[in-house]
Design a protein that fits this description.
- The protein is mainly α and about 500 residues long.
- The protein contains 17 helices and seven strands.
- Strands 1-2-3-4-5-6-7 form a seven-stranded mixed sheet.
- Strand 6, helix 17 and strand 7 form a beta-alpha-beta unit.
């Protein structure tokens, strides 16, 4: 401890803290083009290390709150040691995070913001230690130290929020806030006297386990479970999904009770199957006539079904909560995109072909100014776009790098833009891109050959480009499933 005190008391150490802090702020502007493999491996330890500095910086703040408001007198040497360990941990965490960031394994708007949050947290933690050293040596500068400590904690919490969003989805840490303040939370609890077997139980199970594949936009096997009436239609199998009064003859029920390794078992492998209680409820409901007007109170005397419903109540409550959160999140997303569309003077609409939280992006007519800067403003929402039409806008090849981050993009229309094809290879990173329109651009033969490596591409339009008939014919020969059109093609 004495040796640590001697080092910390030196003026050189104080200035070194400020210098290292400023270096961290400059870190996002420093690009490693070819990082050594050893450093990239160290980057993988970032998720392991990140919890320590968050806990330590929060603990330090709690001690100082005790000093100010509860007459607690902590040992300054212990706080010094705590802050030094915190700095070591946070430097290690941000350093490993930088190498993980430099590896290229993670990218996108949230990653950029998370990285910036990390370096700012590191800077503020180093400044906190610097001010504490002044306070420890001279009993001055406690105010700046305390403010820096609070700021470091806020930065750490916000950075952690972004990290959670990267790992678990947008607004992961704040996802439950709407349920605390939103009046619609009352929907989660309904009196037993008005509970319906279909609406409040069966439909909740379908929405949680089935409708991701069986909905109006994506009716897999010809079956949609989006509404009650659709249960009584025939799918591609030719059988009725639900035969009232006959569960064993209902195609839907037959599929969900098949062995898990059966090719026709539903839900398919990789998705959560129905539980025993859910299967029992579905069987009894169908055998009782599969009515949408059957009340829970009406089956209270049916011991078996009443018992099943009672056992399912906690699970169904979780489903309702998840559905309500998804609904609120979807509404917030729609409002955010409407505001952004008005600001950028573009058209953003829900994609009726793809389902909830899928959107299209297109230009106004006549088109307003839309270039790379405007495209970058859409980065937080890239994952939600499934169809994009940038006809006649001001983008060039630099925009293709950002468009490649739209991992759910299925259709992309780039007619009459300034792209030359030099960066067309970036679009190969989009796993689901099926339709690409490059008419009236400077795409040439060399760029067109890159189309062979697009994983899902099935239609491309090359009207009035610099491609030759020989190359187009060669593309058709080597990739016959790819249809190449010498016409302007569609847009929206």
């Amino acid at each position: 401890m004495e040796r640590l005190e001697k080092i910390v008391r030196s003026r050189l150490f104080y200035y070194a803290l400020w210098l290292v802090g400023l270096c961290f702020l400059a870190l996002p502007y420093f690009e490693i083009r070819q990082a050594p493999i050893v450093l990239l491996m160290l980057g993988r330890f970032h998720p392991v290390l990140l919890h320590f500095p968050i806990v330590l910086i929060l603990l330090t703040l709690m001690i100082e709150v005790g000093r100010l408001y509860f007459s607690y007198q902590p040992g300054d040497k212990w706080i010094l040691a705590l802050l030094v360990v915190t700095v070591i941990c946070i430097v290690s965490t941000v350093g490993s995070g930088y190498f993980l960031y430099a590896s290229g394994e993670y990218a996108g708007y949230l990653i950029d913001q998370h990285f910036w949050g990390g370096v700012i947290t590191a800077f503020l933690t180093l400044v906190t230690l610097a001010f504490f050293i002044v306070f420890w040596k001279s009993r001055r500068q406690y105010g700046p130290y305390y403010v820096a400590l609070i700021a470091a904690n806020i930065a750490a919490i916000y950075t952690g929020h972004l990290g959670g969003s990267v790992t678990h989805g947008r607004d992961y840490l704040s996802g439950y806030l709407p349920l605390i303040f939103d009046a619609s939370v009352s929907k989660l609890s309904r009196p037993d006297s008005i509970l319906m077997v279909y609406d409040d139980y069966v439909a909740q199970i379908f929405e949680s386990k089935c409708t991701s594949c069986h909905n109006d936009q994506r009716a897999k096997g010809g079956l949609s479970l989006g509404s009650y009436g659709q249960l009584f239609t025939k799918g591609q199998s030719g059988n009725y999904a639900v035969a009232p009064g006959m569960a064993d003859y209902s195609e839907l029920f037959k599929r969900v009770i098949l062995p898990p390794n059966h090719d026709e078992h539903m839900p398919p492998q990789g998705k959560t199957p129905l539980t025993k209680d859910e299967l029992d409820l579905l069987r009894h409901w169908i055998n009782l006539g599969a009515s949408d007007t059957l009340c829970v109170s009406q089956v209270a005397d049916t011991t078996t079904l009443a018992s099943i419903i009672k056992d399912l109540d906690p699970t169904i409550a979780q489903y309702r909560r998840s559905h309500l959160m998804a609904e609120i999140s979807s509404q917030n997303l729609k409002a955010e995109l409407e505001t952004l569309a008005a600001k950028l003077q573009v058209v953003i609409r829900q994609d009726s072909l793809q389902g909830d939280n899928s959107y299209t992006l297109s230009m106004l007519f006549p088109p307003s100014t839309f270039g790379l800067d405007q495209l970058k403003e859409l980065r937080p929402y890239f994952d939600y776009f499934t169809r994009v039409s940038l006809v006649s806008c001001d983008i060039d090849d630099a925009a293709l790098y950002y468009l490649s981050r739209m991992k759910n993009l299925k259709e992309l229309y780039l007619q009459k833009t300034k792209i030359s094809g030099l960066s067309l290879i970036y679009l190969q990173k989009i796993p689901s891109l099926e339709i690409l329109n490059l008419s009236f651009t400077e795409i040439d033969d060399k760029s067109a050959i890159d189309l062979l490596d697009f994983p899902a591409l099935r239609e491309v339009f090359l009207y009035r480009t610099n491609t030759s008939n020989q190359v187009i014919q060669a593309l058709g020969k080597y990739k016959p499933e790819l249809k190449i059109y010498s016409e302007e093609g569609p847009y929206f």
